[in-house]
Write a structure and sequence with these properties.
This protein is an alpha+beta fold. The protein contains five helices and ten strands; from the N terminus they run H-E-H-H-E-H-H-E-E-E-E-E-E-E-E. The protein is globular and about 65 Å long.
Length: 220
């Protein structure tokens, strides 16, 4: 039963209703307003064809184009610290809308994804699309091998069913993951969030290496 999985023992942990339905649907609506109200506007965010992880083009929304997602990333830091039992700093936030039939090949993440959160924002047809995580931790000397696979092959893996507002906290750098079945919805919206151990080997990836803003000043 996947709901029994624990972050350190199993590499991931399912978090039911991380955010209330009203919050998650409003977040997605604000994301859509930011992208535009028609097809032509939204297609400005279409990924380049041929990205290795994504056999089908998708809409990509890094936080540079949608800083609202950074606020959620920063705000969820305390919750992720409880799950990971680790003092964290945020690294990045990235939104993605997959079209019907899309898959995400099996892969492991870059170092900025030491502690990851895969948050489901919504499915057009309310049909759950499984997120899959491998059961075996990747050996340290294999982490930088960025090969990607169509499926898990012989490797054992878990299937996780998320509704909108549910999330999976997972060790993205250390466990293979992906969506191996074709997306059954007309579209499927997700937010990927990453943190690093603030005192750990990936601490240099905090804030995705972007320079922090200068101290605030106010004038009356
Ligand atoms: Fe990933």
């Amino acid at each position: 039963m996947i709901k029994d999985r624990r972050y350190h023992e199993n590499g991931y942990e399912f978090i039911e209703e991380l955010l209330p339905p009203e919050v998650i649907s409003s977040f997605l609506s604000i994301m859509q307003i930011n992208m535009g109200a028609d097809r032509a506007s939204q297609r400005r965010f279409l990924s380049e064809p041929g990205i290795a992880l994504l056999p089908t083009q998708s809409y990509e929304l890094p936080s540079a184009y949608f800083p609202f997602s950074l606020g959620l990333l920063w705000g969820l830091t305390a919750r992720m610290e409880v799950v990971t039992k680790t003092k964290l700093l945020p690294s990045y936030a990235h939104g993605r809308i997959y079209p019907k039939g899309a898959t995400c090949v099996v892969h492991n993440d870059r170092a900025a994804n030491e502690h990851s959160l895969n948050l489901t924002l919504g499915f057009s047809d309310n049909t759950i699309w499984d997120f899959c995580v491998g059961q075996e931790r990747i050996a340290e000397n294999y982490l930088d091998n960025k090969d990607a696979y169509q499926d898990f092959g012989e490797r054992p893996f878990d299937r996780i069913q998320m509704n909108a507002g549910d999330a999976v906290a997972y060790q993205g750098q250390h466990y293979y993951h992906g969506r191996i079945d074709p997306n059954p919805n007309a579209w499927s919206a997700h937010l990927f969030l990453g943190w690093v151990d603030r005192d750990g080997p990936q601490k240099d990836h905090a804030f995705d290496k972007f320079e922090l803003p200068p101290p605030a000043k106010f004038f009356f």
